[in-house]
Amino acid sequence: PPYAYSWNTVPATTTASATGLSAGVYTVMIADANGCVTSALVIITQPSSPLVINANPTNISCYGGSDGAIDITVSGGTPPYSYLWTDGSTDEDRTGLTAGAYTVVVTDANGCVITLCTVLSEPSELICATSKSDVKCNGANTGMAGVAAAGGIPPYTYLWSNGETSTNISGLSVGTYTVTITDDNGCTTSCEAVIGQSSVVIVGNATITNTSCHDAMDGMATLNPSGGTPPYMFSWSNGQVSQTATGLGMGTYVVTITDDNGCVLVDTASIIIGGPDAIVLSITDSAETCFFDSDLSPYQHGQFFYDQWVGVTITATANGNGVDTVIIFDSNVNGTADPDLEVNIGPMLIIPDNIVDTNSNGLVDDPNDNGTGGVMIFEFDECVTINSFVFVDQDFNTLPVVTAYDSLGNIITQVTVPNMGESSVQVVALNASCVSKLEISAVTSFAVTGFDIDCNTVQGGCVNGSVDLTPMGGTPAYTYMWSNGATTEDLSGVPCATYTVTVTDANGCSATRSITITPMNIAIDSIASSNTSGPGMSDAQATVYASGGLLPYGYSWNTAPTQTTQTATGLTSGTYTVVVSDADGCTVTDSVTILDNPSPKFTNNEIVEDIWDVKVYPNPTDDLATLKIETSTSERLIVKLLDTKGSIAFEKQINTIEGINEINYSLGNMPRGIYQLMIYSDKHSDVIRIVLE
Fold it and tell me: Which of 174, 192, 168, 178 is nearest to 135 (CA)?
């Protein structure tokens, strides 16, 4: 010693030990201090094959699930092998995993090490949103509900709590309907649609004005309904159709109330109009009074007339007991001063006492001193006992007939007054021994009181509006004059506008009413779509959201075969057209383009992962909501917020950068409820359910 060493490595190793050698044959030369040299041959061996690791991953079937698995296969190197995962597990294979990245380090018996990272993915969250139409009439089954699903793995199946399996269900009564959506992986979610209804239409407290006299027709009833959906329509048993029925006599009137949805009061309401008892005329033995004291003397049995009303016809028959005189006065229809009739009758009972009075001499003055016009009839004996005084006021348009009867029911006097326009009849009857009652009958012409109108609204750009007019009241036949010049009862084939019609009956009485025909346009608000996972794939889908028109909607996609659901699935890249039709047959068309997501990028033979993660927090929220997007690319995104009817609450465009992006939205001024937030671009799409409470 000392010794010198020389290995045939490159570069040459001059130490006793040579390291970092690969498999092969190595020679070492050893020289001592005297220059003596010797050599040795060393053979370095290696395993027959390199250490190799392969993974067979099983992705998570449902969003948020933990059924992922990784099956590891190791070959080469020198068994046995040991395993160490990043979460500390030393098992070869892993099960019960959630979505994420998992790294394993495998070491063989020689200490050789190999590492593998495996990423487990999961579908987007399966979400749903419902729309509904409440029951229009209390107790009916006219409700409707619909559901839209997104996320998960299409196609979807639907199961409602009432057994229905379609996206839209109808014929529903009040209640909560739950729908369960199952995607192609068997993942499920559920939504509820709560069907409500209007309250029952009730009459409420009616305001009733009784008649002033037993046989009068001046009663009135005003209804104060509640419940249902205002405004209301009324149908009285006497033909009136307004909320207030007027000109009523004593009796019971039945009214049917219909609300704006066509709901009818379950039990028709009966309104009772009362009034004072009929005047019962009786004869007493009180002192007789000879009260005829006028300038028509000398007094004699028979008839006396003071007649300024041309055309008045009078028929009077004496019926014993000295029925003497009928006096008819024209109360001056032209409005000049009325004649002042004074009859000296002595003590008397006046019923009612608020419509006539006696002067200081005990005389009864004609109460009709206001020049409105009318007729007065007095019937009396030479000397009679006075029991009652009746005053009746009646408006008329046609010929009124006034009849007086005796106590046996025989006609004493019948007066027919010609039609002189709008005027008034005053009848004054004094009870005498032969007159027990006075009856008034008049044929009157009432105004046209109302219409029934059915309007077919104009759909889209069509011009097929119509109005079905049904006049009520008045005296047929009717004539019609519309604001567009039409003279027919009904309108058809007219555009949207406001139309006014004047209906005139046979007596010239008229009424006017307007109706507005408005469009009910169906529109496509948006089409949400996803791209294929790559070229040649057929795993994209598109969902159309419509509003307006008349539910339910029908769908027709130009796929092969034609798909007729709201969501078209199994789509390849290309442009697709969808036709949405409503219950009236009106249609609207739109299209959507499906793209292929690009193939994975490779750098140094390693896959560059496409990162796309979208969250909204807090959720539920009462105002502020933050949209958090984590992405591996910079791109322009479209953000839409849809309500349960598919209507767009807002639509915005944002530009993202690689990494984490956060955008704040204020939702506090929007109606409370469930919304769908759609985020999509040419490469990515997502739908998130937001609850605003």
Answer: 174
What CA–CA distance (Å, rounded) separates 279 from 216?
A: 12
**Residue 548 to residue 519: CA distance in whole angstroms:** 10
**Cis geometry, peptide bond prior to residue 231 (ω within 30 degrees of 0):** yes
| DSSP 8-state class, residue 47 | -
Terminal CA-to-CA distance of the chain, rounded, Å?
Answer: 91
Give me 602's structure tokens: 């490779």
Global pTM? Answer: 0.37
For 252, what's the count of Cα atoms within 13 Å in the CB-facing half-sphere? 4
In the sheet with 685-692, reading across from the earlier edge strand, the strands are 648-656, 635-642, 673-680, 685-692
CA 269/CA 280 separation, integer angstroms: 32
Secondary structure of residue 193 in the 3-state scheme:
strand
Q: Where in the chain is the domain with CATH 2.60.40.1080?
A: 52-120, 448-517, 522-594
**Fold of domain 52-120:** Immunoglobulin-like (2.60.40)
Strand-pairing partners, residue 575, are 593
What is the pLDDT at residue 154?
Answer: 93
Provide the β-strand partners of residue 169. Answer: 145
Q: Which CATH code of 2.60.40.10, 2.60.40.1080, 3.40.50.11540, 2.50.20.10 fits the domain covering 522-594?
A: 2.60.40.1080
Written in H, E and C, the secondary structure of 475-539 is: CCCCEEEECCCCCCCCEEEECCEEEEEEEECCCCCEEEEEEEECCCCEEEEEEEECCECCCCCCC
- Where are any strands of DSSP class E within 417-460? 423-430, 435-442, 448-456
Contact (Cβ atoms closer than 8 angstroms) between residue 577 and residue 591: yes
In angstroms, the CA 591 to CA 527 distance is 8
The rounded average pLDDT for each run of 10 residues, N- to C-terminus, in the chain (693 residues) is 89 89 87 89 85 94 94 92 94 95 94 93 94 89 94 95 95 95 95 90 79 72 86 88 87 86 68 50 23 26 30 32 32 31 27 31 35 34 32 36 50 46 34 30 28 39 64 71 90 79 71 69 76 84 79 90 93 92 80 74 50 85 88 84 78 83 85 84 79 85
Residue among 588, 561, 562, 594 nearest 576 (CA): 594
The residue behind tokens 């009413």 is 513
